[in-house]
Amino acid sequence: MAGRLAELARRNSERKRLALEAGTDLRLERLARLFGLDETDTDILLVSLAVELDTRYEKLYAYLQDDVTRTRPSIDLVLALLVQEPLQRIAARERFAADAPLRAARMLDLFDDPARVAPPFIGKTLRTDARIAAFLLGADRPDARVAPYVERHDDGPGIDALLLDDDTRRGLAGLARAGDAANGPPLVMHLQGPRGSGRRAVARGLCHERRQALFIVDLERLVADAGPELASAPHFELIDREARLAGAALCWRGFDTLLAAGRESELRACLRIVKRARGMSFLAGESPWFESGALGDARFVNVRLQRPAVPARIDLWQKAAAKHEAEAAQLDIVGVATKFRFTPGQIEASMHTAASLAAWRDPEHARIASQDLYDACRAHSNRTLSTLAQKVTPRFGWNDIVLPADRIRQLREICNHIKYRNRVFNEWGFDAKLASSKGLSFLFAGPSGTGKTMAAAIIAAELGLDLYKIDLSLVISKFIGETEKNLAKIFDEAETANSILFFDEADSLFGKRSEVKDSHDRYANIEVGYLLQRIEEYEGIAILATNFRRNMDEAFVRRLQFTVDFPLPGEADRYRMWTGILPESTPRDPALDLAMMAKRYTLTGGNIRNVALAAAFLAADDSDMIRMTHLIAATQREYQKMGKLVGERDFEADASS
């Protein structure tokens, strides 16, 4: 018998040699090479696998174990079959330890015989993992337990095809060459950048250079689905096993998820895998991370992918337009590139949405128009800002606002600062001369109702941007540190909202700084300094509005680019407001004396709007048209609301005049 077994072993060895020379993929050999299995490990695996190939082995194992219910091999049986010497058999028990190659890669499952109470360790039964059995039998279907969380890419654009600055491109090309060192320490790259900044594209590009597949793991979904027991679950090891079987690099997308408090064990599990990887691994997230020795001997590189500057965005938009067969010359490419600080991913998604909007608007031609682009860009901007602020829908144009001519010119100048930002900063070279933020911040000052919110809405409409109104009186908290947290949330969301921020009641925070007499005064000044810092760093548009210009801190006001004063309207301006507030379709008495209303009552535009609307409701209930009696009655109510005293007889006289 021994001689026959030796002859069979010799034949198998010869057949294996010939197959390897012919380039045949021997899966057991590949498995052993990938996971460091020796001959004894592979024999253990084959003994366990036999019942998956031929059910007659069940009877054989039951016979050998003298138990008809034990149709799979136990550790004791495997040791008896493969190891002859008693001392060697004791040492061989370590091959079934949790950290041994077969168990660490989850190739073998150990389970107890339910008919036996507290069986010894060697009495545990072996079962080959279903995915490993399928792999050895020629199947490559991913493990169903982790397939929903893994996205496979077999190819991608090369590094040269990515829109990156020259320094970043050269650095990545060098990393691609460094990652080819087969016997060197693993190379771990932390790809940091906002969503759509090209983190996945960079990982795919580097794998393209190395002709290697890439597995992108959705950590956010994995953590959400696995729940609090993720660290003890096999997900991380199973994902790593799939990548090794496919010869793929791993990109852990949503790495920030593991940096949250309470996720330390999951972070260790992930880092344990990247530390032992061969070649390159990627950690992709939005937040900075420094490994601080957590990766051992692995080489670590932090690659920061920033939002592209305006010239790069223009190039991206033009390429996206060409891809969708849109006529770039007919589109406001410079405008959208200047106003929307989009990542490459957002630009591609926005152009796709614009194409869909064009097809809906004009099914026959489906030509993308500039308005489609602006609508698409607003749709792809961060919409969560609406949970922190009130979105203002623009309903007015330049013809609707009544202000002195020089104030209108100021407002148009503000728009020009956004429209021509690319020309001034990039084409004319001012970008190199200014170290500060390229954003805009300015103050609207004037009594309530003089048109500050309307002006902000008109600017938003002119620029094609959304407008969000933040009431600072609601943001300020009496609890120390809470105001800064509230402001941080607003600005963090606004960075990707591509919107205009309108801070109402700014004097509630930016009042004259007081002398520090106690800790509350000191923290109040810290809040002012914090908001000032965030406004200066913000690259978008921030408008601060106050009803009381004299209450604003002058040192702060001097640091704003514009200050626009909204005066109380004079008689001529009030008359323009009165004539413009009543819709053409509104029935009115020909005897309406709007000139008298403008002369007699000192009202702001907001007051006049309230009076006109109240008069319309009075008229709807009382007659078929708006009469002077309705206007006077509504004005009286408005004066009462304002706390102004006017004699009853004065109102009666005006109503009868």
TrEMBL record:
It holds the Pfam family AAA. The keyword ATP-binding applies. The keyword DNA-binding does not apply. Keywords: ATP-binding, Nucleotide-binding. InterPro entries: 26S_Proteasome_ATPase, AAA+_ATPase, ATPase_AAA_core, P-loop_NTPase, WHD. Residues 438-570 form the AAA+ ATPase domain. One of its GO terms (molecular function) is ATP hydrolysis activity. It comes from the Bacteria. PANTHER family: 26S PROTEASOME REGULATORY SUBUNIT. Belongs to the AAA ATPase family. This is ATPase central domain-containing protein. It comes from Caballeronia calidae. The lineage of its organism: Bacteria, Pseudomonadati, Pseudomonadota, Betaproteobacteria, Burkholderiales.
